[in-house]
Design goal:
505 residues, 13-stranded parallel sheet, disordered N terminus
């Protein structure tokens, strides 16, 4: 063959090869295997062609959802609306203090092993990553909500910040009518553990002055403020409850659950933002016969259920048989009063028989007005459907969609390591791909369970808030659900002040 034709043939083959690589892409993820035995093991997967990545090391990992590394305060939880200062944009590292980790879960770090790659390969494509809404309004989880750290135990009839409590039959009460008569204005509490007793506000509608109690980073068992129209306003920031009942309270970054009673039962004038409701299944015989909800609104005789607002909240209430019955994430079923100005928006709900109820019972109920349930992402760990079909007149429900991807909530750093909190609320094993400082990590996140006959026996066995630990002090992490072979961006965080990054593929 003449030299000119030989050169032309070689060039032609090279061009076809380059076009083929560009057209079909660098990465063919291994199809995640369905978890048959119900174990919640996260397994690392490596691309079949390990020579097709430039200057990237592919990593693999194994982790059990119930075995998590004790993390530190999330550093990337900046939001656009009234976010506490400790949830900054992630520009600085944080101390190695441990936040509010469920003590029932044994903390163990994820083991990560590297696989060497062909360093001579040149990238054929570049992925440009920028911040998305979930990077500003960070999803609540067990790491960024609730109380954590050391606490001062509050005992029966203690005096706390100059306020004398009165204990009677297991209830530690705040009473500003018959005692504490010199107290007015705003009183602040931080780092107290009230959980040995039920806490209740007594006679708060009979006092002659307005009082605001602000609780930050405090723990409670059950808190009640049951007066019809209390003059004691309650503010809770990063507090942990089993249950709350009452009116005139604001909650941000609080955690409810771990018990068979409803997490939050509001009567009127309640604001709930960036809060986390989880783990209501119970084997406690005392819970026999209870129908447990993340939150339930049933009203109170003679009081209009009004001005109740939930926004950017998350409910993880998978249907698990126990001594109690898991009923719903959101149980809106007014019985004893009518409802006005009630909303659930921009939230995640996973679990229940039906996940959402919006019904009524005629025990004093007459109407719903300006009641909205909108922009709700619904997981599949439920027994029946997303919304109970019996929707009451006056309730507007819109944009309730099934969750189709993984999601990453908290991202934080500590002890020179980088952590991600990842959840799979779908019934399929899913592939998580993380790019961090030019290194690609892959994890298969096991499927959840749902339906009448498919469930885990314990909340801890669900793939919820799994701590993925990268053994590096990263400058950025970009997270994708790559289950279908495409890159669906689910979380992006930087610590160097940049708002974007270009990743060679």
């Amino acid at each position: 063959m003449p030299m000119k034709k030989r050169i032309a043939l070689i060039l032609g083959v090279a061009v076809v090869a380059v076009i083929g690589v560009y057209a079909f892409g660098h990465f063919r993820p291994a199809e995640p295997e369905q978890n048959q035995d119900g174990s919640a093991e996260v397994t690392g997967q490596v691309a079949e062609d390990d020579t097709d990545v430039a200057d990237l090391s592919v990593m693999e990992a194994v982790v059990n959802p119930g075995e998590v590394t004790a993390p530190v305060t999330a550093v990337s939880d900046a939001t656009t609306d009234e976010v506490p200062a400790q949830y900054d944009s992630g520009s600085e590292d944080v101390s190695d203090e441990k936040p509010g980790v469920d003590p029932e879960i044994d903390p163990n770090a994820v083991t990560v092993q590297s696989v060497s790659q062909d360093k001579d390969h040149q990238p054929t494509n570049v992925l440009n990553v920028t911040r998305q809404p979930t990077d500003y309004n960070v999803i609540p989880d067990r790491y960024n909500c609730g109380a954590w750290g050391g606490f001062t135990k509050v005992l029966a009839s203690d005096t706390v910040n100059g306020i004398v409590l009165q204990e009677n039959e297991g209830i530690n009460s705040f009473d500003f009518l018959t005692r504490n008569t010199d107290i007015s204005g705003e009183i602040y509490f931080s780092g107290y553990d009230f959980s040995d007793y039920i806490v209740e506000i007594y006679n708060s509608d009979l006092i002659d002055r307005d009082i605001t109690l602000v609780f930050e980073n405090c723990k409670f068992f059950i808190f009640r403020s049951l007066s019809p129209y209390p003059r004691v306003k309650l503010v809770f920031k990063n507090c942990t409850f089993n249950s709350f009942y009452g009116s005139c309270a604001d909650f941000t970054y609080c955690k409810f659950g771990g018990y068979y009673r409803d997490g939050l039962v509001p009567y009127h004038d309640i604001s709930v933002k960036y809060c986390y409701f989880s783990n209501f299944s119970s084997q406690d015989p005392a819970g026999a016969g209870y129908h447990s909800d993340g939150t339930q609104i049933y009203g109170k005789e003679g009081i209009l259920a009004e001005n109740i607002k939930y926004e950017f909240c998350r409910f993880e209430v998978p249907w698990i048989p126990g001594s109690n019955a898991i009923n719903a994430c959101i149980m809106l079923q007014l019985e004893f009063s009518s409802g006005k100005n009630i909303s659930f928006t921009n939230s995640i709900c996973n679990g229940g028989g039906y996940t959402i109820y919006a019904t009524s019972k005629d025990k004093g109920f007459e109407y719903y007005r300006n009641v909205v349930i909108s922009n709700i992402s619904v997981g599949q760990s439920r027994k029946y459907g997303a919304v109970c079909p019996n929707v009451a007149a006056g309730v507007e429900i819109s944009n309730v969609i099934d969750i189709g991807d993984l999601y990453v909530a908290s991202v934080w750093k500590g002890s020179g390591k980088t952590h991600l909190s990842v959840t799979n609320d779908t019934l399929q094993d899913r592939l998580l791909v993380v790019y961090a400082d030019g290194v690609r990590y892959e994890y298969v996140i096991p499927a959840s369970r749902g339906g009448k006959d498919s469930y885990f026996d314990r909340f801890e066995d669900y793939p919820i808030d799994i701590d993925i630990c990268i053994e590096a002090d990263c400058k950025y992490v970009a997270c994708f659900d790559a289950t279908t072979g495409t890159y669906n961006q689910i979380r992006f965080v930087t610590w160097d002040g940049s708002d974007s990054v270009s990743i060679p593929l």
